[in-house]
TrEMBL record:
Residue stretches making up the pPIWI-RE three-gene island domain: 19-159
Stated name of the protein: REase associating with pPIWI RE domain-containing protein
Pfam families given in the database record: pPIWI_RE_REase, pPIWI_RE_Y
Organism encoding this protein: Micromonospora sonneratiae
Domain REase associating with pPIWI RE per the UniProt entry, residue ranges: 257-372
Amino acid sequence: MVLTVNSPLDLSTFTGVTLLRMVATALVDLSRHDRAPDPIYSDKVQKAYNHLVLQCLLREMEPPASVADMAQWAATRPIGQWPFDLPAEAENLDEFLVDAQTGVPTQRCYEWEVSAPDAAAELFENEIIRTVFAQCEAARSPQSYTAFRYLLVDKPVLTGIDKATLIGEHPELGTVLETVNRCYEPAPAAYRGTDGRFATCARCHCLLKPDGRSWRCELDRCRREAHATPKEFIDDRSTGGLYLLRAPLRMFITGPGLAEVELEQKLIGKGLVPEMWPGCDAYDLRITLPNRQVWAVDVKDRANPALLGHSTTRFRPEPPYNRAFLVVPQYRFDDREDYKIVFEHFCPPEVKEQVTLLSDKAFLRMLTTTLTRLRKNGTAGGDDA
């Protein structure tokens, strides 16, 4: 079905969306803390539960009996069965906020939490990026920023030995070492297998969570493409401990970063030399074509096109470029054929004038066609890209 959107959705004031944000934020908060048998919940958790109960009673629905019951709802009831009153374009109503098999929040849950005003995940991620940017700018070391981003993509898991030898192997990280340490936390016991070891994902290298006799990855793409297979097993007792990149960074740096690096390799295969995260992450890739035209690319791996459109801003003007593209992995378009329609509906007009949304496959097709034309014509200059 192709969606036709008739009226805009105010993502900042719509009551159903506000409640969804509150619940998502509460669920992420619950996932970060071990609770005693008689817990005292944070204000954000209690407030979300109270409002959820109220909305259930107003609709003559049986409310969750407790905060724990609300968390159980998140794993067993799709979003469409909650009293959110969401328009269809706001979310895939068949999705869940918690993965039933691992008990951890889904990426959709994190996206709604990140979009919430003052959400801890967004504040933490933004603070980390701003801090690293400032440190690298003060040191006049853009290579340190690039090394930092590669680290978060390539190494979402570090052993104690890895941490101790990090600077020796990557001296450019010395500028941001203190911030790097803040990005990682001791690996939670919930990721430990029955034999006492941890397992890393063969695709994303994050820790897998035990699921009975098998393993499950928390990143959407790994689960969808059945890549939740162990790459290696780690006994943290013999490695000086084990550290995992914090959840907001795994979801919104490592996840999209994998797509960024995959795109980088494909561009290199086409004879191009892409710049990664130029200008300390003004955008993700900078591509110079044979006619000296420059394309700027930002890669996002977001489940919700409405939230992506709502949060997308114009690209920074430096380093300069001729065209700007927002590239999303093809599987997101496969999951929602209305992805582009919904994105453009919620995207600010001034952004739509500048930025073109494409799947990674469509972007590579366009690039291939452009390169073929330029090389056939022997183009060395001009502005026909």
